[in-house]
Structure prediction request, 1076 residues.
Amino acid sequence: MNIKINQGGKMNYREALRAGIEQSLEDDPRVFLMGEDVGHYGGCYGVSKGLLERYGPERIIDTPLCESGFVGLGIGAALGDMRPIVEVMMVNFSLLAMDQIVNTAATLHHMSGGQFNVPLVIRLACGAGLQLAAQHSHSWENIYAHIPGLKILSPATHNDARYMLIQALEDPNPVLIFEHVMLLNNQGEVLNGPEADMETALIRKQGKDITLITYGGSLPKVLIAAEELEALNIYVEVVDLRCLRPLDSDTVIASIEKTHRAIIIDEGWKSGSLAGEISAIIMEKAFWTLDAPVQRICTQEVPIPYPKHLEQAALPQVEQIVTCAKCLIKGEL
Amino acid sequence: MTKSIDITMPSLGADMTEGMLAEWLIKVGDKVQHGDVIAVLETQKGAIDMEVYDDGIISELLVKPPKTVPVGTLLGRLNDSGLAQNTLNETEQIIEYKISDDLDVRLVDQTSVNHIKTVINKKSDVIVNASPVVRKIASEQSLDLSMIKGSGFNNAVVLRDIELLIKEPNSKQASYLKDIKLAKMRSAIASIMSQSNKDIPHFYMSLEVSIDNAQRWLEQTNHDMAPQAHIILIALLLKAVAITLKTYPELNGFYLNDRFEQAKDINIANVISLRTGGVVVPLIANIDQLTVFETMKALRDITIRSRSVKSGGRLRNSELSGATITITNMGERGADCVFGIIHPPQVAIIGFGKVKKIAQVCGDKINIGEQLTICLSADHRVIDGILAAKFLNRLAKILQKPEQL
Amino acid sequence: MNDKLHLDKNHLLVKLTQMLRIRLFEEKCAELYTQQKIRGFLHLYIGEEAIAVGVMAALSSQDEIVATYREHGHALARGLSMKSILAEMYGRTNGCSKGRGGSMHLFDKKNNFYGGNAIVAGGLPLAAGLAMANKRKATTAVTACFFGEGAVAEGEFHEAMNLAVLWKLPVLFICENNAYAMGTALALSESETNIAKKAKSYGMAAKQVDGMNVVNVEAAAIEATQYIKANSQPFFLECQSYRFRGHSSFDSQLYRDKEEIKQWQKHGPVVQLKQWLMQNHQLNENEFKGIEIQINQEILEAITFAEQGTLEPIEELCKDVYSTQLSGGVKIDQGDLV
Prediction:
C-alpha cells in the first residue's frame, strides 16, 4: 500500500510538504490532518491546498481557534490509535498549547511507567523574514528541543520536507516538525526517498577549514556563504542538523575533528539558544581538537521588528557568516 | 586512618620551574614505601628519579607522560597508611630558591628559524596562549610553545603556526625547539652563579693541613679490603667536615628572608663533574650519623649515578635539593686552592686543594709529609673571620685523628 | 431514593462496599502520609466516593476513563488493584505506573484508565481526542472525563466543550462540584455558578445530580451513557458534592467553616446508604463490621505489597522517556534511503 506520490523531481518546498502529507493520507487510513484553516482555506501558507477536496472533511479537519483544545485532542486521538497530523498554524500560537505539549504529550509515556505512548505529529510554521513583526516571527526550536519526551525535526531541504513527515508518523513518540516560512517558495530537488533516518545530521558540503553547523531556514544562507568562501580559498564543511532533539552530536564532532574550527548559525536569539547547547557539546567532546573558540551567529536580542531593513539586521546573514569565517582563519575578530 | 596525600611535581633545583614527567614507574594500586622511586622526570639537569616520601597505596595518577608541567602541579595521589613519615620531606620544602623576577633568558635570533621571539621567564610559568589542539600536539612532541609566535586570537599559537613542525617533526626547526631547553639550562646555571656573586658578600680563608695521619689510616684500613671498597681521602674529609659543623653550626644552614636559619641536618653536597661537561651537585644526607665506610659507600653510589645517566643511573630529587653546605674537591685536577662560589641559600662552600708533598722539619731532620689546602668561601652576613678561622682550625685538628671519625 | 434503577440488596451492598473501600483506603493513605510513606502531594477523595462508584457502575470495560489528581477513588472503583495503587504511591516498581508517577499519575492500560493528571482541565481535550478516536474506529465506547468545578474556569474546559459538541464526540463529562477549587469557593471564581447551565450554553445535554447519593449518580450515569450512544453526542453530568478533608494533605482549610464540613458529613455518601440499608433491614451492624474487617484486611495486604516493592535502580533513570515500539503505520525500510 505504498503509493508514492510525486516520486522525485523538481518542486517548491510547499509542494514537497504537501506531497508528504498526501502520501501519509494515502498510506494509512488512521492519518488525518487537523488544524486551523487547513481545509477550506487550503492552509495558511497553502500547504494543504486541494486536500479537502480530494480527501474529504473526515481526513482534513478545520478546527476552531483553540490550540490547547485541539492539540490536547490530537494527543487523545493518538492515544486512541489514530495518527493525527496536528498543524499549529505558526509556532507563535503554540504557546497556547504548550501545556498540552509539555505536560501531556511529552510526559505520558514516562508518567505511566511506559504503558502509554503518544504517536502524535505536530507541524508548525516558524521563522522570520516576511515582515510579520514580533508576534509572528519566532524561532523556538530550542525551547521545545529542551524537553525530554519530544522529538524535534527541522527539514531544511526539499527532500526532508517531502519525507520527514512520514518518518515522524512512524515514530511512536510525539514529534514536532518546524517548517521555516522563508523556504516555502524555494525550488529544489526531491529524490525517491529520504537520505537518512530522521535523527541523523547530514553533511551538505564537504570541507576542511571550518565546520558550519546549522538547521532549517538558515541552511540556504550557509550554503551561499560556503560558495563565497570557496572563492576565497576557504573550504568550509556544512552540517545540516536536521533533528534538534535528539541532536546528532557524533556527526558534528567528527567534522570538527577534521576542521578544528566551528561556527554555529542559528536563527534563535543567542541567549539560551540551541547554538549555546551545541557549543557546550563541542567544548565537552572536542575541546582538544579546537584551534579557535566556537563562534555563534544568531538573531540579535530584540523582538523581531517590522521594517525590512531592521528585520534583516536582526537576523543572521550571509555576510556575517563570511566575515566570521574569514576572521577565524586570520585570527582576528 | 588513612589520608590522601598529593604527589606533586617536585622542585628539584633552585632554578627549576617546570619538569617533564617522562614515565611512571608505578601504577594505581601499587603499594609504595618512603623512598621508593615512582617516576622518572626530565629536568633541565637531565633525567631524575622521583621518589615518594610516604608509605601507602597509589590511589590515582592524574598526569599522563610525557607531559611538562610547572613545579607543584598535582601529578597523582596516594593513600597514606599512616606509617613513618619522612622528615627529609620537610627539609626539602624549606628550600625554595627564587630566581629574581626580572631575569631574562635571551636567545640569539637565528634567521633560519622563523617565529622565534624572546620571552621573559617569569617565576611561576611562561603564559603562552595556544589553542587546545596546539597544546595537545606540543605536549606530545615536547615543543616549547613560548618560542613560537602565535597568529591566532589574542596572539595565540594556532595550528598554522606549527604546521611545519607537524609535517616534519624531525626537522632542524623542530629539534631546535626541543633543544631550546638545554640551552636554557646552561644559561640558567650561569644566571644563578652570577646572582650569587652579586648577592652574597663572599670572603675567603685558607689553611694548610697535614694529612699524614689521614693517609696512614686510610692505608691501614684499606689494606684488608677489596679495592672496590677502598676508602678514599674525600670520604674522610666529608666526615671531618660534618663533625666540625656540629661544633660550628653557623656554617650549616640557609640564608633566607634576610636571616640565617640553621639546618637540622648536615647534608653535604659534592660537586661532581660530568664527562659530558657540566656538573651535578648531589648531596649525602646526615653524614654526621654515617661511619666513614658508609660515607664512602654513599659517595661511590652518587658518583656512579651522576655519571651514568645515559645508562640508566639517575639521581633522586632528594639528592639534588636540601644541601646545607657544599664541598668542591678539585684537588686531583691539580689546583692548590679552589675558592668556590657559594650555592644559595647555603652560606659556605669548602674547597679542598690537591695533595702535595712538602718538606717538614722535625727536630733536626727533614721529613716528607703530605698536606693539602682547605679553602673556605663564606657569607660575610652570617660568618665572620674569627669563626671561619676557628672552623678551619678545628677541621684541621679533627683530621689528625682519623680513627675517631 | 431509587430512580429508574432496578435495585436489590446485593447491588446496594456492593455499592456500599465499594464506597467504604475507597473511604477506608483514603483514610489509611492520610495516616501513611504522616508517616512519610507517601510523599509529594496527596489529594483525598473522602466525601465524594458516590460519584466514582456511581459512574463506574454505568461504564463497560471498553469505555475509557480520564481523571484528575484526586483519582484514587476512580482507580479503585474502576478495577485497579489496591495493591498496585498503594505501591505506586510508595514509588515502587510494582506500582501501576511502575512508581514513576506517584499519587497524581495512576495509569492502567488494561483498565483503559488514562490517569491521573496534575493540570486542572488538562484531561478534557485528551478525553475529547480519545472519543474522536472511538468515533473514527466506530466503536460504541464512551470516554468518561472526571474533573472538578475549578476546571470550569480554564480555557481548556471551554475549548473541549465546544469541540465535543461541534464534532459530536462521545464523551461523558462528569463535573465533581465539591464547591471549592483548592481554597477558592465557587462563588468567588465563577460569574455563573450553575455549571450545568454553562454546558448547556454549548448545546450540550446536561444534568445536575446529588453527588452524595450513589443511587442517583448511578441512575444519572446510565441515562447519560445511553444518551451518548443513541445520539452520538456528549453529555454533561454535574454532581454536587463535598470533600470532607482539605484540598491536599497540606491544607489547613482556612477558607471554610468547620461547621459546614460537619453538616456535609452528616449527609455523607457512606453514612447515607448505610443508614438507608439499616433502616430498611437490609444490613445490620455486624454485617457492616464484617465488611469493614474485610476491607481493612485488604488494606493491610496492600501495605505489605507496597512495602515489599522494590525501588527502581538509578541506572534506569532515563528509561521510558521515549517509546521504542513501532506503531505499525507507514513503514520506511532502510533500503528506501537514497
User: Anything to note?
Assistant: The radius of gyration of chain C is 21 Å.
